[in-house]
Amino acid sequence: MPDRNATAQPGIAPTARPTEGTMFAALYGELVPHAWRDPAPEHDAYRLFPQRSLAMGRLDDRPGTGEESASGGRTHVAPELWAMNDAGRGHPPAAPAPDLIPWFQVEASALADDGPLPAQPFLRCAQDTTERIGAVRLAAAQVPLPVQGIDASARPPYALLPSMRTPARFGECDPRARVPVKVRIDGGLNPSIPGVAPQFARRVAPPGQNMFANGLGEAVPPEDSLPPPSDDRFWNGPPLHGKTLSSESAEWSCDAVGWLAATVADSAAHVGIRTPALLTVVRA
């Protein structure tokens, strides 16, 4: 367990069993703590997040060495779970606004062949946990995607992009909830992302879905990207090779950002990206 008295920072987490990779969610904006809330450490983000994960049926809370049962046989690891690594607040002093509010780091279990990266429930869990701490005004969300762990060739024909089976979930959103967003996909040291941006646009926003109805086709001038709150080795950084695109989301929520993150991760794998990618979604 990390030293909770030290300044926490996302890092590379060792693992004793095969996993999809390490994920973290960095939420930026404003957080006003609830006046009635107990500020004691046992009620911080690090303690609350695994409780919410467990309630969602997503927490793999076995010890890292627990690969074998008592009888010596291999245990089954359910796909699309995660093990808690760390959580915290704060950002390097030189980082620009907006402020970083709680971030969360987990180790994702290996994926099912027809299942998406669990970015959507992960972001949903992050938002639920943060809202237990205080009132949230979300300005941006950032998710490094462990694309290197996705085997696009193993996807069955009905689930080439598994998250594309669920965009109808956002089909009944209030039209007034639609918001313009800026979506930046960065490959860090991998220079491939800018060249495949048009393919991302076609895969992430195909005709017939309402989630990102206007697509990702309009490129906007690059801006200074939000630096992730982690060591560059964590995701193949620093952010050097990316593309910032404009779009419109059916709603502004971690649920929507998580859906986009899962779709971008699979899309990246399908266009040949084999290294982690950093997704940053900013409310425009």
UniProtKB/TrEMBL annotation:
Recorded superkingdom: Bacteria
Span list, region Disordered: 217-242
Protein known as: Uncharacterized protein
